[in-house]
Amino acid sequence: MKVLVAMSGGVDSSVAAARLKQAGHEVIGATMQLWPRGGPDEAGGGLSAIEDARKVARLLDIPHSVIDLRDIFHRTVIADFCREYRRGRTPNPCVRCNQLIKFGVLREKAAELGAEFIATGHHARIERDGASGQYLLKRGADRQKDQSYFLYTLTQAQLKNTLFPVGHLTKSKVRELAAALGLPVAAKPESQEICFVPDDDYPAFLRDAVPGAAEPGPIFSEQGEVLGRHRGIMFYTIGQRKRLGIAAARPLYVTAIEPERNAIIVGQKEAVFGTALVAADIRWIAGQPEPELKLKASIRYRHPAAPVQLTPMDEGRLFVKFAEPQMAITPGQAVVFYDGDTVLGGGTIESREGSEIWLK
Questions:
Q1: Which DSSP letter does residue 100 get?
Q2: The pTM of the whole model exceeds 0.90
Q3: Which residues pair with 349 in a beta bridge?
């Protein structure tokens, strides 16, 4: 079996390639060059990542190539990231990258090279249901590193020829295997949260990438009182407490962002909680679940999944009602639905509903 492994230069994808080679498969290593032209060397797909992947490929004696996807990555992921922030939303570019780049463009490249499968270092699992024959996306064995949240857009066709060779392993076991194999990335630190934002400095990135990003405006209380000035709405997110520049008797949190007024709304912690949300662009991995199925939903990465009820709306949207109030439901983020360890699908949060006071 011929497999193209997306080698990021990290320990997970390196061990994924090694395990596939040990299993006797014909393995091709490929590193996506994503960001940026003339940008920071340490960014995802940067020169250091490419060199680390090359070192591992040489050690494993597998061919390795660099696939330049910088232009399409900028058009489909980075430009969308900037547009969403301008709209007062907080996007999740990793979801979009997985959907369009890793399991979209790279999958096509793999087919051109004659590879039957594509493999990555994601901490997630794929199983095939014996009764229906459908492919199921499962949480990774290591709950602290589980990345299934970012993969809810995967289709049956994509899952059919995708492998996650480290999904059933803990992160510590992955590092142990890497050390035993003598891989030079065995002790390499975790990559930053978003690969194209150097040092995880969102304000600096947005200030450079989006003209007019740093346009100051008013910070209002929920009663309409002007409490201060913000540095630009793109630098704030729902639930944010720090760096507001407001003196108050009790901590204040961002409760809403209003791009049409270039305004930030703040309130006390109670006001950040919501009981429901509206989600759009819904994707189901193995078909829409039965109405009686008891589901849970997660509103951001590593957020504990909570019981929900789903009600279909117009234009394919969903009304998602939580059994318990959730803090910082954030437009632009993904809401992902689970049945136990199985990822059923997800969508993009459009709005928060039900902001009654729920703190006990």
A1: I
A2: yes
A3: 279
Residue 36 CA to residue 69 CA, distance in Å, equals 10
3-state secondary structure of 188: coil
Strand partners, 61: none
Q: Which CATH class is domain 272-353?
A: mainly beta
For 261, the token pair is: 């007024």
Active site annotation includes 97: yes
Catalytic residue among 7, 60, 77, 97: 97
Q: What is the dihedral of CA 56, 61, 63, 64, to 10 degrees?
A: 10
Q: What is the largest CA-CA distance in the chain?
A: 67
Tokens of residue 106, six digits: 């790279």
Looking at the domain 214-267, which fold is it?
SH3 type barrels. (2.30.30)
Respond yes or no: is residue 94 known to be catalytic.
no
The structural domains of the chain, with segments of one domain joined by +, span 2-199, 214-267, 272-353
SS3 for 28? strand
Amino acid at 163: L
List the structure tokens of 6: 């997306």
Which class is 2-199 in CATH? alpha beta
- The Cα 84–Cα 78 span in angstroms is 10
Closest CA to 110 of 52, 28, 9: 28
Distance CA 202, CA 138 (A): 31
Summarize pLDDT for 292-347 with one digit per residue, the tens. 889 999 999 999 999 999 999 999 999 999 999 999 999 999 999 999 999 999 99
Residues 42-52: tens digit of each pLDDT: 444 456 889 99
Residues 6 or more apart in contact with residue 60 via CB below 8 angstroms:
17, 18, 21, 27, 29
Cα dihedral value 192, 165, 72, 115, nearest 10:
160
> What phi and psi values does residue 246 have, to the nearest 5 degrees?
-125, 130
- Sheet harboring 226-230: ordered strands across? 226-230, 217-221, 263-267, 253-258
Name the catalytic one among 154, 195, 329, 334.
195
